[in-house]
Design brief:
This protein is mainly β. Helix content is about 0%, strand content about 25%. It has no helices and six strands.
């Protein structure tokens, strides 16, 4: 059973959550308490970081010190729509650059 030292609250529904890192290195909120209906396997690595992976494919069962978790996005009761992400270069517009004009006289 995980300890409560890293539990935060969701800004939308005020539920208890934990922030974890996915296999792809992205942050994901998971419900703080283990859930046997969840589709994630969570564990702490050697540095104490909470890591999650999806249960399925080649590794469909829990291994070693993993516990089953539910992604918070699936259970959030008051989720606000997020604004669309900006482009990778905010404030930049397409610019037409004219070539050098040479007048033959």
């Amino acid at each position: 059973m995980p300890s409560d030292h890293d539990v935060a609250t969701c800004d939308d529904c005020f539920a208890r959550i934990r922030w974890a890192i996915t296999v792809n290195g992205r942050r994901q909120a998971v419900n703080a308490d283990p859930d046997e209906t969840g589709n994630l396997a969570a564990h702490r690595d050697g540095t104490g970081t909470l890591k999650v992976r999806v249960l399925g494919g080649e590794r469909p069962t829990l291994e070693h010190a993993e516990w089953q978790a539910m992604p918070h996005a699936a259970t959030c009761t008051n989720r606000r729509p997020r604004p669309p992400r900006s482009s990778s270069r905010p404030g930049r517009r397409a610019v037409v650059r004219y070539g050098t004009w040479r007048w033959n006289r």
